[in-house]
Design brief:
Layout (H helix, E strand, L loop, with lengths): L1 H21 L4 H30 L3 H27 L10 H16 L5 H31 L3 H34 L2
Helix pairs in contact: 2-3, 2-4, 2-5, 3-6, 4-5, 5-6
Protein name: Ferritin-like metal-binding protein YciE
Organism: Chitinophaga skermanii
InterPro entries: DUF892_YciF-like, Ferritin-like, Ferritin-like_SF, YciF
């Protein structure tokens, strides 16, 4: 009985090892690369969009938070380029429809809210958090895929970015709860 279980386990291990060897040519790996291209486009687009959001912010705290995220986003672009290099791939961006929509929504917030108001800051935080949640979902999924394929170093890089996205989301939540929302209510 134990021999059959051991044989099945050995067969699964051999099958998994063979699958990992073939991974760079698999549909699963192709999905991973396509998703990297998607988030690469998203991050590059954010480096262009965040300065506009920062300029539109009223509070210095929100301006600082957006500027900090801009610096992180530039680093995320660099990390993605490093990952493409590790995969022996050219860093190519594939238009991210979701991020394009989120950026458009952020621009609408600026157009639809009063300049120099905390209501605008509240709306900007919401728009920024929508972006953060998209990034958290993307990086969490990419990290998981990298782990499954045995790309542990890439998974570690993606985990670092994922944690920074979560930290930014928490910072925005804290800013909204402690300052912006209460001042926005009184406007």
């Amino acid at each position: 009985m134990a021999t059959k279980a051991t044989a099945r386990s050995n067969a699964r291990t051999a099958k998994t090892s063979k699958a990992k060897e073939d991974m760079p040519n698999s549909k699963f790996h192709a999905l991973f690369v396509e998703e990297l291209k998607d988030i690469y486009w998203a991050e590059k687009a954010l480096t262009k969009a965040l300065p506009k959001l920062m300029k539109a912010a009223t509070s210095d705290q929100l301006k600082f938070a957006i500027n900090d995220h801009l610096d992180q986003t530039r680093e995320h672009v660099n990390r993605l380029e490093q990952i493409f290099q590790m995969l022996d791939r050219k860093a190519v961006a594939k238009k991210c429809e979701a991020m394009e929509g989120l950026i458009a929504e952020g621009n609408e917030v600026i157009e639809d809210t009063e300049t120099d108001s905390m209501v605008r800051d509240c709306a900007l935080i919401i728009a920024c958090q929508k972006v953060e949640h998209y990034e958290i979902a993307s990086y969490g999924s990419l990290r998981t895929l990298a782990n499954i394929m045995g790309h542990s170093e890439i998974a570690h890089i993606l985990e670092s970015t994922l944690q920074e996205e979560k930290d930014t989301d928490s910072l925005l939540t804290n800013l909204a709860v402690t300052t912006v929302n209460e001042e926005a209510v009184s406007e």
